[in-house]
Amino acid sequence: MNLQTFNSDLFSFLDASPSPWHAVESMAARLNAAGFTELMERDNWRTEPGKGYYVIRNGSSIIAWRAPQTAVETSGWRLVGAHTDSPCLRVKPQPEANRSDYFQLGVEVYGGALLNPWFDRDLSIAGRVNYRDSRGDLCQALVNFERPVATIPSLAIHLDREANKSRSINAQTYLPPVLGQGGGKQMFRDLLAQQLSVQGVADVDRVLDYELCFYDVQGAGQVGLEGEFIASARLDNLLSCYIGLQALLASSAGEGQVLVCNDHEEVGSMSAAGAQGPMLKQWLERLMPEAQARNRALASSMMISADNAHALHPNFMDKHDENHGPLINGGPVIKINANQRYASNSETSSLFRELAAQVEEPVQSFVVRSDMGCGSTIGPITAAELGVRTLDIGVPQFAMHSIRELAGSRDAYSLFRILKPFYELESV
What is the extent of the structural domain holding 116? Predict the structure, then answer.
């Protein structure tokens, strides 16, 4: 796969993944096409060496792996981790509001969203819907309106002269999107049932509940005089999900190769499907029920936690440590924090640098300014839960947690080229 093909398919993946549930569906489709087999958590598992498998929890977290052909107790697992969720606006359970003939929906802010960019965008709605069919069975389906159905209009500067100086956003009152006019007392669940019917889900007796995200309908694309940048929603962290998936699919079978993409990272990871939950540990216990063998394998394993990094912003140079400001298209970034907000250490960093050198890809480092707080990732959580050596890395980007983010058009492919040989290492 060359750079152009990689980015073209990346754009298709991003556009098809407006919610964590759609992202997992997109990943599963690619795994199925590559011959991987889905396993259900409620079933007994039988795996064959060299074959590919995946398991999904909550529809929004996925673990994909190739069963090792070597003795995994001594060779260990090669794990790559990412997360499927992104900051956004989620629809409330009883969202309907009719004000001055405008139909609006109440929303809740999911994660640490940058709110200003949400105004004046063409918005659609996507996510998971649970419903009862005509037989009384409880069912679920993914919904995606796809077309622009809402917007959050800004207040004119004439009505708020201080808007460019001091306007703060009240999430309760400023953010409810406008979907239309008239129609009396519209019920959102009726609109969902109609949309499901449009998508071919005909037998919907009653919509019971849902988990839905607003999203910007503008698709992913390249920006810049020479196409230097990738612009899209949800680059944090669907970019890492896609990179890890492509590296897994491109790798030769043999070693124990794992990709885990968890939901709920943006809200702390503490859930049944999050990295601070039991999903990965339970997966490992099912494959290796004997504790001695399992712990031996973990001692020989390594996790690479992939989550985007803050690139050096030319308009805000003072927000970075002068020696640790990663450049877009300067290569993947090793993320380091002495207080263990990132799990990287000199051993795991050195292995990554060596792999990068072998494929002639550059590597950068990020350390937050000593007078600023530091974010975190699933890396330290997974390291603490499993006791596995871990490295935190990421592709540099601008506008993290905005409705539209910006990354380099070469960096994702560069990280892919490093993760592929990581999956194929005979020992880590």
Answer: 88-216
Cβ atoms of residues 83 and 261 within 8 Å: yes
Q: What are the tens digits of pLDDT across the range 80-112?
A: 999 999 999 999 999 999 888 999 999 999 999
CA dist 355 → 47, 244, 273 (Å): 30, 15, 31
- Other Cβ atoms less than 10 A from the Cβ of 245: the count is 23
Number of domains in the chain: 2
CB 306 within 8 A of CB 379: no
Query: Which residues, 6 or more positions from 44, have their beta carbon under 8 angstroms from its beta carbon?
Result: none
What DSSP letter does each residue of 355-399 carry, written as one string? HHHHTT---EEE---TTS-----HHHHHHHHH--EEEEEE-EEES
Q: Same domain for 167 and 19?
A: no
Per-residue pLDDT tens for 284-329?
999 999 999 999 999 999 999 999 999 999 999 999 998 999 999 9
Kind and range of the H or E run holding 291: helix 291-299
Q: How far is Cα 157 from Cα 167, in angstroms, rounded to an integer? A: 11
CATH number at residue 81: 3.40.630.10
CA dist 239 and 234 (Å) reads 8
Which contiguous run of DSSP H or E holds residue 231? strand 229-232
Single residue among 164, 185, 216 that ends a domain in this structure: 216
